[in-house]
Design brief:
Strand content: 15-25%
Helix content: 40-55%
Structural class: alpha+beta
Number of strands: 26
Mean pLDDT: 76
Low-confidence stretches: 231-324, 328-341, 560-592
Distance between the termini: 40 Å
Radius of gyration: 49 Å
């Protein structure tokens, strides 16, 4: 039965404008189970013909049929599938993967098989084949630790691992000594005896004499096709062939007995070949006898692929089952095991990285530095942002200031608070009915006054009358010493206060003021606490130069701006021509608030509502967060409209101020700083990605022969693309993980040594991993694509 049929085959290489014909109309057939030698001088076209037979190359014209399938029009990937399924290669230079064990070299073709066995079954198969070629004790040896003959045996085991129907051997003994050559050629005889078709490509007549049939090529054409020469001088070692006989009964079975190295009588073995009715002489018997004689004289031990055959008295041993060469039992497909969840090329890529540790480290170094810079910069940026937000919060970034309305006369406004329209009850209702509000504090300000202690006096820049919630609203809850006054002190208008750090330093000369009395406007106040240091605000004002007392104390006991503001509108009205002079009794009770302020006619006309006797100047409101400030403003506005009976379209008797503009400005600055840091870090990542692409391109060049070898044993373009892509991604992920640790360490050192604020950023870590993988895909794709497009013939020839 035909395995190979070639009809009028031509192959021409085009070198620029020069055409170089190599094969010129070759036609031949090779049957199943034959052992054929392709012989010819250099340049005769035998290697080109072998490449076409091995589906590594395609003819310029003509037909090539392999096992009933036409090959010349198949795509490269389709030819790779044929190589995986039906072909095995044994190369002259062995072509084993360096720094790879014999076991993994044999396993390599299985990675590209359509039906990949389970990992355990594949290893059992590879070990069985290595045992049968006499390398059972060298499974973990690398090519550099083995002799040439042992490396060739590994190559033979690799060629057999996919159960090929055809084994192609290119000068299989070209790099071996005579003793090892005999052993290797005997293996091919035994493979052929097991039913495998063997094609030897050689220029040596001694090697060709081992074949059943020799096809001689000359100038790209078949010069002769027939049995090898029968001269004893053509056999290896120059020994005289043993006796044999032959018959042509056409039954297609082969029987052969191979000499054992223990048979030292040199008589040879007899063989009987039942060929396909072609009446060839008994070349196998003669060759076997010559092998036996040579082995006996040289002391060589024949290594058999089939079960070793002990010397028998009968003339031949029949190989009944060609599959006995694969005596490893059933093989479980990978779909039934955990290995099916992971592509075989992933394991291949990881092994390739392990074989080149230093190159892998240098490749990942750019990503390590880039990701480390990203993490360190992001954590430092996050820490700076948090510190900046804390500074803004200390100024009251999420604090709203609700102020009383403004009186006006003749188009002139007297400013906010000139008409007192806010009550302490408004503050209570805002806290109860506005969900976006967390705390409120009514505020009464006192005019600038002198603070007197013993023989020292000092004018504080701020004096506020408020409630204990003021410290919560201002994020000032921690006191340096003492305690804050209570709500009971507010209701009783107790003569107590707390002072800032500047007051302690300037008035009390750094001594503790707690328990000491001070006087403001001839009102004695006992200091019960000292506020913690807050420093200057963004406007440069000292926030620690402050006295805080109950608002009732400031309003009713200390003469402040609130009492004066109650009479601003009346005073303004009395100066106009339409006003009426009203005795406010201020002259009778100097320094005290007006008990019954009388509004002017204009004021009464503009605001026909009762005067609120218990009023406050401001209400400080703390929103739940900066983002909820708009909601808090809307809720407060709606509530005060209802409480103050302000109809739609009527002007508000209050106004709400926030620090949105300042907050936005600071947020923009913080965001800009973070973006600058991120851009610098991303530049490092891009540099690392370019480094990966460059080194991967160099790697493709260095491993061109390896790529050609993988394609020769069945790897398709997608396997090569995936392998190099996985290598790039794995390198980037390893670099990303290492960079995360490096960045975190750098951030920790900055915090410990330089006392800069840093903050862990989980999104930055996740982004670093994602960016690492993306860099691997983006910058690794081109080298991987370039590797997948290599021609296997050109790759194998690459020096």
């Amino acid at each position: 039965m035909e395995l190979i049929r070639i009809s009028n085959l031509y192959k021409t290489y085009y070198l620029g404008e020069v055409d170089v014909p190599v094969l010129r109309g070759i036609s031949l057939t090779i049957n199943h189970g034959e052992m054929v030698a392709l012989m010819g001088a250099s340049g005769s076209g035998k290697t080109t013909l072998m490449n076409i037979l091995g589906c590594l190359d395609r003819p310029t014209s003509g037909e090539f049929w392999l096992d009933g399938q036409e090959m010349s029009q198949l795509t490269p990937n389709e030819r790779a599938l044929v190589r995986t399924d039906k072909l095995g290669f044994v190369f002259q230079s062995f072509n084993l993967l360096p720094r790879t064990t014999a076991l993994n070299n044999v396993l390599m073709p299985l990675d590209y098989s359509p039906n990949i066995p389970a990992s355990g079954e594949a290893k059992r198969l590879a070990k069985s084949l290595l045992n049968r070629v006499g390398l059972g004790e060298r499974l973990d040896h690398e090519p550099s630790q083995m002799s040439g003959g042992q490396q060739q045996r590994v190559a033979i085991a690799r060629a057999l691992v996919n159960r090929p129907a055809l084994v192609l051997a290119d000068e299989p003994t070209g790099n071996l000594d005579s003793k090892t050559s005999i052993e290797i050629l005997q293996m091919f005889r035994e493979l052929n005896a097991a039913g495998i078709t063997v094609v030897l490509v050689t220029h040596d007549p001694k090697v060709g004499s081992f074949a059943d049939r020799v096809i001689r090529l000359k100038d790209g054409q078949v010069e002769s096709d027939g049995p090898p020469e029968t001269s004893a001088h053509g056999l290896p070692g120059g020994e005289t062939p043993g006796n044999g006989n032959g018959s042509g009964n056409g039954n297609g079975h082969k029987r052969i007995a191979l000499a054992s190295g223990r048979d030292t009588n040199g008589s040879g073995a007899q063989a009987d070949q039942h060929a396909n009715g072609n009446g060839h002489s008994s070349r196998q018997a003669q060759t076997a006898a010559a092998l036996a004689s040579t082995a006996a004289n040289s002391g060589a031990v024949a290594v058999a692929m089939a079960e070793p055959v002990a010397p028998k008295t009968h003339p031949a041993v029949e190989v009944a089952n060609p599959d006995s060469i694969y005596d490893y039992g059933s093989v479980e497909p990978s779909g039934k095991s955990l290995a099916a969840l992971f592509p075989a090329t992933f394991r291949t890529a990881v092994n390739a990285l392990r074989r080149n540790k230093m190159r892998s480290l240098l490749t990942a170094l750019g990503v390590i530095i880039g990701v480390g810079a990203v993490i360190a910069m992001m954590e430092i940026g996050q820490g700076s942002k948090a510190a900046l937000q804390k500074t803004i919060a200390s100024m009251g970034a999420n604090v709203l200031l609700v102020q009383s309305g403004a009186a006006s006369n003749g188009g002139v406004s007297y400013g906010s608070g000139s008409v007192l329209t806010l009550k302490p009850q408004d503050a209570d209702e805002i806290l109860l009915q506005c969900p976006a509000v967390t705390d409120v504090a009514p505020v009464v300000r006192s005019g600038r006054a002198q603070l007197v202690y013993l023989n020292r006096n000092y004018p504080p820049s701020s004096m506020y009358g408020t409630t204990p919630a003021y410290l919560i609203v201002r994020d000032w809850e921690e006191l340096e010493e003492g305690e804050m006054f209570s709500d009971r002190d507010v209701s009783k208008a107790a003569q107590v206060c707390v002072v800032g750090e500047t007051i302690k330093r300037e008035v009390f000369m750094g001594e503790s003021p707690v328990g000491k009395d001070i006087r403001i406007q001839n009102v004695s106040l006992r200091v019960i606490g000292v506020l913690s240091r807050k420093g200057a605000n963004m406007l440069g004002m000292d926030q620690d130069d402050i006295v805080v007392a109950p608002w009732t104390t400031v309003k009713y006991r200390i003469s402040g701006s609130s009492s004066a503001n109650q009479t601003v509108a009346a005073a303004a009205a009395s100066s106009s021509a339409t006003s009426e002079t009203v005795n406010s009794l201020d002259n009778l009770y100097p320094g005290g608030p007006a008990l019954y302020p009388v509004p002017s006619a204009t004021e009464a006309a503009d605001r026909p509502q009762p005067v609120r006797f218990t009023s406050v100047e401001q209400i400080m409101v703390k929103a739940a967060s900066t983002e909820e400030i708009p909601d808090a403003i809307a809720e407060i506005t709606s509530l005060l409209h209802e409480r103050h009976h302000i109809r739609e379209g009527q002007a508000d008797d209050f106004n709400i101020r926030d620090m949105t503009e300042l907050t936005n400005t600071m947020a923009q600055q913080s965001q800009l700083m973070g973006m600058l840091l991120l851009v610098v870090a991303l530049i490092s990542l891009v540099v690392g990605g370019v480094g990966i692409m460059n080194i991967m391109l160099v790697s493709v060049t260095e491993r061109t022969r390896e790529i050609g070898l993988r394609m020769a044993v069945g790897a398709r373009s997608k396997h090569i693309l995936r392998q190099f892509l996985v290598e790039a991604v794995v390198l980037c992920l390893i670099g990303g993980a290492t960079g995360i640790l490096l960045g975190r360490g750098a951030s920790w050192l900055v915090r410990m040594i330089m006392n800069w604020p840093t903050q862990l950023s989980i999104p930055a870590i996740v982004a670093a991993v994602a960016v690492s993988a993306t860099v691997g895909v983006v910058f690794g794709f081109y080298p991987a694509w370039k590797a997948s497009k290599l021609d296997p013939i050109e790759a194998l020839r690459y020096e």
